[in-house]
Design goal:
The chain is mainly beta. The protein is 8% helix and 44% strand. The chain has a 22-stranded antiparallel β-barrel. It has a 5-stranded mixed beta sheet with strand order 1-4-5-2-3. Strands 12-11-10-17-16 form a 5-stranded antiparallel beta sheet, with no helix packed on it. The protein is globular and about 100 Å long. The protein starts with 16 loop residues before the first helix and ends with a strand.
């Protein structure tokens, strides 16, 4: 169905941040004047609130839907300072979508922090600020790093589908950040901490000031935070590519063969390849590469580079935020409200210098070999070479600036003796990003620098000849090591500037929402009020992501890409009814249900209608039984529909590999592979050497793109549970909820592994035409091209249990004690990638899949003690064990706990299982006589580290990026006036 706009489309820029700030400023004098207002006036009737999960304003906060609430007091007792880390600590969240340990991550979202409820992806979790949508990236990600923690009053997490109430993206649930309002006074805070290894320094400074009068208030605040990077070389579990147990390139193996074990064959000492394809590596410390006698035959053991020595284990992060909100009661029944937020976030990643190969750029038409008449070539003829540009590590600085304004009016009125609340508001959110990349070579300049050259009388390497020098060109000697200087050395800053040109990608996303809501009581029934909420929203999303012109040209050693640009708009209507059925009767102290429906009309795919039914039943005062059933949807994002084609070096497993592929154990796979690859075929990994295990990074760049014909995902979610608060056991509460979510027509980015698996393991012929294998004898059989677009394919389904137990003791002579234990257990998690009837379902619970950790159990226990002005808290964070595919050749399979495992999806595949991990946190605090709080603490008190994981989940290392990387000790001081 084609979209038909119900109102004129508003243009962006109508109310930019400058006007937003002016509006808030305009409210300030009005509020200040209101301080003199007559206190005898009737109090405002605007006192009912809206609870996350319902649009009906009410005084009763107990709902039929599962909502996890964290108050500011609870947040302050944690050692986490960012909103993202605080939310990530909820057991219902999955592993980080883009962890700060993923140094190799690329794209628009890198540098942000995102929440992923139920492990279904951050694009399926809706994030709100005070009930209004956050801005999103072109791929639909909401960056929680743009929210300063000092602004947070509480966080409410609805762990249930809520598209009927909030629209698209709320399939897995809703995170609602409630900000501080009506603040009176001044508060300043400082936080300083670092890891036990003396690195990763973190500092946070903020203040909040506010004034509240009879009819209004103003709250202002600012926050600055800075987190230093941590180098992988400074942790024993990330110092080496395959972990602590493998500190050298040589693994040996069942046949005594040598494998690189994740080390890079492209090292920082130049390796020359002669006409007979023999490799020669420059001797350490040599300054003269004109003589082959200064080289030695390349040694597979010693001539390897350890890229981890230059990589960040944890990215650097710096944020600056300013926020303000104001409200003014124009009359007793009419209030004006406005709030603004400005955040500037900067994240920096670093990986090792580029692994340059003169034959590694199929897209470049020039000749990158070291020319025979180069002043540094000992062979006298054009020769290929390999050299990691160790002196110039690759860095990516991702900057994102957020401008957010929300303003409007709200009021109440009486109709037929019933009170009705209404509000009309406008929201504008703009995210502007700049991603600056350094450390990649400009290939035309590299070609010139590798051409004919000479060393002038001043010892400067020049391009051309002494008779005809090339102005502005500097020659490069790629055979020199980083430990020496001399003509053509990369230690020359001028040569670095000539070869390595920076790139600047830019992005802009905008969200604009007009909304009108009405809530009130239709009638009073014998069991209570029949409540109604209804409303209308008009929303527009647009996004533009533009890679640097150099990247679009393909003339850089960095990944090529093209523009993403587009947008969509929609109109939505919703209605919600709260129906009381029984009250104060036998076995029904309360029985009520809630019905909600939402109609959404998009100008892209058409319209959709979604509903939700919720039941609340209290057979006795102590017991609440609740249940919900809801349908939901997620609309395709701008990147899904209009994303540009981009390159990526994917991690994949070739089933035809004769060491760890399915062909080793499956005769049918071997037979299918035999027609396409040579005997004893080995998958080549990044660097041109055989892969040491499954899920190796490709040696060729693959292309992927969007699909303008995508349909929305649809979902069904069910939740049944109870809350028991026994009157005979004061202070004790227990809740248990069973939940299930199924998503159909999943918008899926097919992986290279899944396409190859479909062809060779499952025998799906249509998949065999979607990739290309090389016919070059030197690279015969290697996958060099894959056709990938986004599809609506298959389904994703997950189900499990949430258990919550809390107990607060009555005051004792030893102080007050409170205990809280929350656990999420995932019963199953299924994923079917495509619509092929013969494709089996992947089971993901307890597995690492597509680089993400799917924990079966996450559990948090917190104990808090307070006695007068003293207090202490102890937290325990538990993650269950994981399974991963393993490289069978590692130590002859000794590290595979189940080498004979069989999977319905991949057939026979060796499996490695690692155990659970538990982290302990401690904080002690003291409230001083001068109205301050001093707290000291440590996260991961016992300095626990997780196991080596060769699949590198949630990061770029053989260590799980979801885990702590050391003991973090901190001090926090808060002063109130």
């Amino acid at each position: 169905m084609n979209h038909r706009s119900l109102r004129p489309t508003a243009r962006y820029g109508v109310l930019p941040s400058a006007i937003a700030a002016a509006l808030v400023s305009a409210l300030v004098p009005a509020i200040a004047g209101a301080q003199e207002a007559d206190a005898s006036k009737n109090p405002t009737t605007l006192d009912r609130i809206e609870v996350t999960g319902s649009r009906i304003r009410q005084a009763n906060l107990e709902t039929s839907q599962p909502v996890v609430t964290m108050t500011r007091a609870e947040i302050q007792k944690q050692g986490f300072t960012s909103v993202a880390d605080i939310v990530q600590n909820i057991t219902a969240t999955g592993s980080p979508a883009i962890s700060r340990s993923d140094a190799l991550a690329s794209g628009e979202e890198v540098g942000g922090q995102y929440v992923d409820l139920r492990g279904l992806g951050p694009q399926r979790t809706l994030v709100l600020i005070d009930g209004k949508r956050m801005g999103i990236s072109s791929a639909g990600y909401s960056d929680l790093a743009s929210i300063p923690s000092s602004i947070v009053e509480r966080i409410e997490v609805l762990t249930d589908g809520a598209s009927a109430l909030y629209g698209s993206d709320a399939i897995a649930g809703v995170v609602n950040i409630i900000t501080r309002k009506r603040f009176d006074g001044l508060e300043g805070s400082a936080y300083i901490g670092q890891y036990g290894q003396g690195d990763g320094n973190k500092e946070v400074y903020n203040f909040v000031i506010g004034q509240t009068g009879e009819r209004g208030s103003v709250t202002l605040g600012a926050e600055y935070s800075k987190e230093d990077p941590v180098f992988a070389r400074d942790r024993d579990f990330t110092l080496y590519p395959n972990g602590r147990a493998h500190p050298t390139p040589d693994l040996g193996g069942p046949e005594g063969s040598v494998r690189s074990n994740g080390w890079s064959a492209i090292n920082q000492w130049g390796t020359l390849i002669d006409a007979n394809k023999n490799s020669w590596t420059a001797n350490r410390g040599t300054t003269d590469t004109t003589k082959i006698s200064n080289f030695h035959p390349t040694n597979g053991l010693t001539d390897q580079a350890n890229p981890n020595e230059e990589m960040y284990l944890s990215t650097a992060l710096e944020r600056r935020s300013v926020f303000a909100n104001a409200e003014f009661d124009i009359t007793d029944n009419l209030r004006a409200k406005a709030d603004i937020l400005y955040t500037d976030r900067e994240a920096t990643q670093q990986v090792a210098g580029y692994p340059f190969r003169s034959t590694g750029f199929d897209r470049y038409s020039g000749d990158l070999s070291l020319k025979g008449d180069s002043a540094f070539n000992p062979l006298g003829y054009d020769a290929n070479f390999m050299r990691r540009t160790w002196e110039v590590p690759r860095q990516t600085k991702s900057e994102l600036t957020t401008y957010r304004f929300s303003g409007g009016l709200e009021g109440s009125f009486e109709l037929a003796g019933k009170t009705w609340d209404w509000d009309a508001s406008y929201l504008y959110n703009q995210n502007k990003g700049v991603k600056t990349g350094t450390g990649n070579l400009f290939l035309p300049n590299a070609e010139k620098a590798l051409g004919p050259s000479f060393v002038d009388a001043n010892g400067v390497a020049r391009c051309g000849t002494a008779a005809n020098p090339i102005d502005g060109c500097l020659a490069w000697n790629p055979l020199l090591g980083p430990d020496v200087t001399g003509p053509g050395s990369l230690n020359n800053k001028d040569l670095q500037k000539y070869l390595f040109l920076p790139t600047h990608d830019t992005s802009t996303t905008k969200t604009e929402v007009y909304s009108l809501n009405l809530s009130g009581t239709l009638a009073t029934l014998p069991a209570g009020d029949l409540g109604l909420a209804a409303g209308y929203e008009h929303r527009k999303e647009s996004a533009h992501y533009s890679p640097d012109a150099l990247l679009q040209s393909g003339l850089s050693s960095d990944l090529a890409g093209s523009e993403t640009q587009g947008g969509y708009s929609l109109d939505e209507f919703y209605v919600e009814l709260a129906v009381p059925v029984l009250s104060d009767v036998t076995f029904a102290k309360e029985l009520s249900f809630n019905i909600a429906g939402r109609y959404s009309d998009y100008n892209t795919f058409g319209d959709t209608t979604n509903g939700k039914f919720s039941l609340k039943w209290k057979p006795i005062d102590d017991l609440l039984i609740r249940g919900t059933y809801a349908t939901g949807f997620r609309a395709p994002t701008v990147a899904d529909l209009y994303g540009g084609v981009g390159e990526s070096f994917d991690n994949y497993t070739d089933p035809c590999d004769t060491l760890f592929g399915s062909a080793v154990r499956n005769p049918q796979v071997a037979a299918r592979c035999g027609a396409n690859v040579p005997a004893n075929f080995r998958q080549v990994a990044s660097g041109g050497k055989p892969a040491t295990g499954p899920n190796a990074q490709s040696d060729s760049a693959f292309l992927s793109g969007s699909n303008p014909l995508l349909k929305p995902e649809t979902s069904k979610s069910t939740n049944i549970g109870f809350v028991y608060s026994p009157s005979w056991f004061s202070g004790f509460d227990v809740s248990l909820d069973w939940w299930k979510i199924k998503i159909e027509d999943v918008i899926a980015a097919e992986t290279v592994s899944s396409i190859l698996n479909n062809c060779y393991v499952l025998g799906i012929q249509s998949a065999c035409g979607r990739f290309v294998r090389d016919t070059d004898p030197d690279n015969l059989g290697q996958v060099v091209g894959v056709t990938r677009t986004l599809i609506n394919g298959g389904y994703q389904e997950t189900a499990g249990y949430d258990l919550g137990i809390s107990y607060r003791l009555a005051d004792t002579r030893y102080g007050n004690f409170a205990f809280n234990w929350k656990t999420t257990y995932v019963d199953y998690s299924e994923y079917k990638r495509d619509n092929e009837s013969t494709t089996p379902v992947e089971q993901r619970a307890s597995w690492v899949a597509d680089g993400l950790s799917n924990f079966r159990v996450r559990s948090n226990f917190n104990a808090d003690w307070s006695w007068g002005d003293f207090g202490a808290s102890w937290g325990i964070r538990y993650y269950s064990g994981l399974k991963e595919e393993c490289a069978y050749d590692l130590d002859g399979g000794k590290e595979c706990s189940d080498p004979n495992y069989r999977s319905s999806y991949k057939g026979a595949v060796p499996v490695r299982e690692v155990g659970s991990n538990t982290f302990h946190d401690l904080q002690v605090r003291y409230n001083t006589p001068w109205n301050a709080t001093v707290a000291v603490g440590a996260n991961n008190v016992f300095d626990h580290t997780g196991q080596t994981m060769f699949s590198q989940p949630n990061g770029g290392f053989s260590y799980n990026g979801a885990y702590d990387i050391g003991r973090f000790v901190y001090m926090k001081y808060t002063q109130r006036f």
